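Input (structure):
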């Protein structure tokens, strides 16, 4: 490997060392927010269903996937409306 390739790999890993903890933190926050909102909707105290860190991060990932799916469906339906009008 030449020096340029090593520098690129080094920069990539430095960036990942910053981005991964930030992304995991966001997943945790969104997982906890989703859990709190869901339990609040049903009028249940959040102490009844405690989640660990890993479960909260996983719930945040599921939340992102659901939001992306809903967004894509809304965009597709809007696109269908626009194309039907043309």
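Output (sequence):
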């Amino acid at each position: 490997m030449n020096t340029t390739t090593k520098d690129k790999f080094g920069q990539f890993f430095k960036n990942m060392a910053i981005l991964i903890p930030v992304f995991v933190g966001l997943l945790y926050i969104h997982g906890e927010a989703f859990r709190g909102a869901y339990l609040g909707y049903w009028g249940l105290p959040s102490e009844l269903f405690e989640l660990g860190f890993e479960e909260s991060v996983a719930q945040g990932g599921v939340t992102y996937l659901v939001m992306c799916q809903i967004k894509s469906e809304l965009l597709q339906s809007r696109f269908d409306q626009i194309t039907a009008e043309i």
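Notes: Residues 3-85 form one domain. The chain has one domain: 3-85.
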